[in-house]
Every structure is written in structure tokens, then in C-alpha cells.
Design a protein that fits this description.
It is built from 14 helices and eight strands. The protein is of the alpha+beta class. The chain has a four-stranded antiparallel beta sheet with strand order 1-2-6-3, with helices on both faces. Strands 4-5 form a two-stranded antiparallel ribbon. A two-stranded parallel ribbon has the order 7-8. β4 and β5 form a beta hairpin.
């Protein structure tokens, strides 16, 4: 009678070694999640589409300079977002090279763009970095629908790496929510997308903040339909044209990010906020709330009513892109 072969368990790679590789590459925070975790059920199809061999997901965060994020000069904000995305991709690339040398294979994702526009007007991304980051213990989802890190607050960008190895230890969700329910994100939101009761109007947020991306498709329609320059300018102001043109040349800019800017969660902001709440509102929240600018809304929406109540904001109407209907 043949002796049954012993079942060989897969070798588990040291999680601490992966964490060390990630931190030495420049990541600010690292978390590891197993592919079988029940909370990733809705993400699993997208994960396997990108890399069928996925066994472990590495979640990474990179902090942005707090003062840039808060600045009323929004080009400073958009500049640090863009450069941090590039740095995060560089860090991810260095991590996977180190793991390749340890006979671990995998793929690095994009922190944000590019996405798969062949799927337009549906879901153009495969997985949510935010969902993974929450499971990896990097932070908790805030009222502003951004991951709040106890250390860096919401001033972080996220990325994920899928690898074909199992590790000897996985991270879990953090137990304590760092959000202090100050409501500043809801107070500063120009469209009213963020609400203190926890509700969130995705369309209102996307229509304004992503105006130079998916919200700007009516620009193409205006170019094609306008009989002359005068007709075109009746639909688009010169500053709007230049904003869209700049987006094509250098990468699109977010029109907002205010909920990220005013959030006091984190080592830097919390002590400042608790020491002088009124001063914090005057120095951080008020300049953004009173910043003169156009805000893009759908006619007849609650966002339109919110903008009408702020004398510093100019209502600009936009069509609903099919991807956010």
C-alpha cells in the first residue's frame, strides 16, 4: 500500500520584511490584506481581473504637505496632489522590484489615473484603494469619503500592490475612529455633497470637483455645435476654456478638495484645532468658504440651492455625464 504524500503547506513570506521594504522605499504607511477576506468580496473580481495570481494586497499611503492641501491658492493643492501621485507610483515600482528579487511577482496599480476608458460610461476603475486601505488598518472612512489616517488625517494618497505570495501576518481594521465629528468638511463643502448626518451626494461632488475631467464633456459639444466664437463664448467663459486647456497640457485639476483641506485629523492638525477652534476656522475654513470661484451644479439640484446661499460662489450649470447618472 502506497504511503500517502504529505500535504505541503505554502511557504509564508515574512510580513515584517515586506513592511520594511515598503517603508525603505518611501511609503509613509503600509498594510497587508489577504485576498480571501470577506470584506473584499465586492473587490475580488476586479482584483483578479488585474492579476489572477493575487494572494496578498499591499496597501500604501503617502502623505501630502499639509500647508499645500490647505492653501486657498488651489494650484498649490493640485500641484502637490499630482507630484505625490508620481512619487507614490515610483515608490510602488521600487517595492515590486525588491519583491521580484525575493521571487515574489505581482502588479502595481495606478494611484488614480489612467483608468480604463473602454468601459465608459460605466465603472472605469477595477478596485477601490480606499476599501483596501480601511481593511489594511491605514485609516477609517470619514464623512468626506476620504480615508482618515490617525497619523496624517485625510491628507494622504493611496495605492495598492497585488502579489502572488501569502504572508505570515495580516493587518486588521483599526478599532478607534479618528474622526471627531467636528463637521468642518460638511460646513466647507461648496455643493453640500458632504452632510453631517453621514449622507453623501456623489453626483454633486463629482460634477464640481471633476469638472475638468468627466464633467467637462459638454465642452466638446460646445466646440462642435457653436457656429462662431461668440456662440462658443456664450456657453464657456475664457477662464473655463483655459482651465480645460491646462488640464490637457499638464493633467486635470480638482476644482475642490476643501473637505480634505479643513479636516483636522492627524498629528499636525489635531493639536492646532483643539488649541484654538475659532482660530482654526478663521485661518483654514473661512478662506476656502469665501474663495470667489465658479461652482458647477445640475439645475434644480440641492447643490444649486447650496451655492445660491454663498455670495462668494458663482453658479455654473453643467450637464450630467452618463458615468454618474
Amino acid at each position: 500500500m502506497a504511503t500517502p504524500k504529505a500535504i505541503t503547506k505554502p511557504k509564508l513570506f515574512p510580513a515584517e520584511l515586506i513592511r520594511q521594504i515598503c517603508l525603505e522605499a518611501g511609503a509613509d504607511e503600509v498594510g497587508l490584506v489577504e485576498i480571501s477576506r470577506p470584506e473584499l468580496a465586492q473587490e475580488r473580481q476586479g482584483i483578479f481581473h488585474l492579476y489572477p495570481g493575487t494572494q496578498t494586497i499591499i496597501s500604501l499611503s503617502q502623505a501630502m504637505n499639509w500647508e499645500n492641501v490647505q492653501s486657498p491658492a488651489r494650484p498649490l493643492y493640485n500641484g502637490v496632489v499630482r507630484e505625490t501621485e508620481k512619487e507614490l507610483f515610483r515608490i510602488s515600482s521600487e517595492i515590486i522590484r525588491h519583491l521580484n528579487s525575493q521571487n515574489i511577482r505581482g502588479v502595481i496599480l495606478n494611484p488614480a489615473f489612467p483608468m480604463d476608458m473602454n468601459r465608459w460610461s460605466g465603472k472605469t476603475w477595477d478596485v477601490s484603494h480606499k476599501t483596501i486601505a480601511v481593511e489594511a488598518g491605514i485609516g477609517v472612512m470619514g464623512l468626506n469619503r476620504l480615508v482618515l489616517s490617525p497619523r496624517f488625517g485625510s491628507t494622504i494618497l493611496l495605492n495598492s500592490i497585488f502579489i502572488n505570495a501569502q504572508v505570515d501576518h495580516y493587518d486588521q481594521r483599526i478599532e478607534q475612529n479618528p474622526c471627531i465629528k467636528c463637521g468642518l468638511c460638511a460646513a466647507v463643502c461648496p455643493t453640500g455633497a458632504v452632510q453631517k448626518d453621514g449622507s453623501f451626494d456623489f453626483l454633486a461632488c463629482a460634477m464640481h470637483s471633476y469638472r475638468d475631467w468627466s464633467g467637462g464633456l459638454d465642452w466638446v459639444e460646445a466646440l462642435l455645435a457653436s457656429t462662431d466664437l461668440e456662440a462658443y463664448r456664450a456657453r464657456f467663459q475664457d477662464r473655463e476654456t483655459m482651465s480645460l486647456w491646462q488640464g490637457m497640457m499638464f493633467g486635470f485639476n480638482h476644482k475642490c478638495g476643501y473637505c480634505q483641506a479643513v479636516c483636522p485629523v492627524g498629528d499636525v492638525g489635531m493639536s492646532r484645532y483643539l488649541a484654538d477652534k475659532k482660530g482654526y476656522v478663521q485661518e483654514v475654513v473661512k478662506p476656502l468658504k469665501e474663495r470667489a470661484e465658479p461652482v458647477y451644479v445640475v439645475a434644480g439640484s440641492q447643490a444649486e440651492a447650496r451655492v445660491k446661499g454663498n455670495p462668494y460662489k458663482e453658479i455654473r450649470y453643467a450637464k450630467v455625464a452618463r458615468s454618474v447618472r
